[in-house]
Specification:
The chain is 72% helix and 6% strand. With 167 residues, the chain is mainly alpha-helical. The chain folds into two domains: 83 residues, Arc Repressor Mutant, subunit A (Orthogonal Bundle); 78 residues. Strands 1-3-2 form a three-stranded antiparallel sheet. Strand 2 and strand 3 form a beta hairpin.
Length: 167
């Protein structure tokens, strides 16, 4: 496969996967482009390579910066802003896990903690509701604990843990 064809395939695939991970396709494509680029890229280079508008590029680059997986890069003598992606796949994974936890698990846990003792309703409905809320609370607490361990773990610990898990 030719390099250009492989590059385009990777960017398209990463964009599609991004949709499954809860981010928009363009944001994932920009991330893919910055991830494989050997040098920091300007907004204009991102726009040209992906054929997207300045507004779309700027908005999605800022979102990637907020996720902590893209960084501004200062190039001496240049007035343009340049951007690069986190290249360490382990660190990248930890940042993504941390952001997904913050955006998905944490709000669910806050909501569960706000549900107190129930009043009214049919006894069987209340009982079933309380049972499910309790199970969700146990699950989310364990998931939070596991995700916090992954976020704070080093690469060797995690892969040793996985090896033990699959033996």
């Amino acid at each position: 496969m030719e390099f250009q064809q492989a590059k385009e395939k990777f960017i398209q695939t990463w964009g599609t996967l991004g949709s499954n991970w809860g981010i928009n396709k363009t944001m994932a494509q920009i991330h893919a482009l910055l991830l494989i680029s050997p040098k920091p890229l300007s907004t204009e280079e991102v726009m040209e390579d992906l054929m997207i508008s300045r507004g779309n590029a700027n908005m999605n680059i800022r979102a990637l910066i907020d996720w902590g997986i893209v960084f501004k890069e200062f190039i001496p003598g240049e007035r343009k802003e340049y951007f690069t992606a986190e290249k360490d796949i382990w660190e990248l994974s930890k940042h993504i896990i941390e952001q997904r936890k913050k955006r998905e698990l944490d709000p669910m846990m806050r909501s569960l903690s706000q549900i107190g003792k129930l009043e009214g309703g049919k006894p069987d409905e209340v009982q079933e509701f309380e049972k499910i809320m309790s199970e969700l609370n146990v699950f989310s607490t364990k998931a939070e604990s596991m995700l916090n361990k992954i976020i704070s773990a080093n690469k060797n610990w995690f892969f040793n843990f996985l090896l033990k898990l699959f033996k």
